[in-house]
Amino acid sequence: MTDNARARKLADRIQVVVAETLDRRIKDPRLGFVTITDARVTGDLREATVFYTVYGDDEERAASAAALESAKGVLRSEVGRQTGVRFTPSLAFVPDALPDNARTIEDLLDKARAKDAEVREVSTGAKYAGDADPYRKPEDEDEDAEADAPSEKDGPSEKNEGPASA
Length: 166
Hints:
Helices cover 50% and strands 14% of the residues. It has helices spanning 4-24, 58-70, 72-83, 98-123, 138-148, and strands at residues 33-41, 47-55, 90-95.
């Protein structure tokens, strides 16, 4: 087993080699606008998974997937020639789910924005159920303390009876 750093370096190199080879050497008309987004190599450096995206509709994606499968041998030969590893890893092409996930997140964010706008429209002109500011302030506490304090007209209260007689 090799270390993960070597597998990462090899994966990065495979990503570059596959992208350049697709751009320069592969002339398949089925191959659409393909972008190699990532590559991962197993720990034993025997298998490489190459992630790609295709700009276009489902038909163009299917055609590009078929073109990548047919060019797999040429791409693997080029990877072996340019990397110089003892065993050239076998290549597996997997469509990247990142654009679909991003589209789903964008749709959810659009729904959230619409709901926020709806709440904003409903809340315009609305009034508070109670006071506008429900929190006590220091001047309110002074007024409450003055209202609770006994006045001299009332006479001694139960709390302030003075010294207790024995």
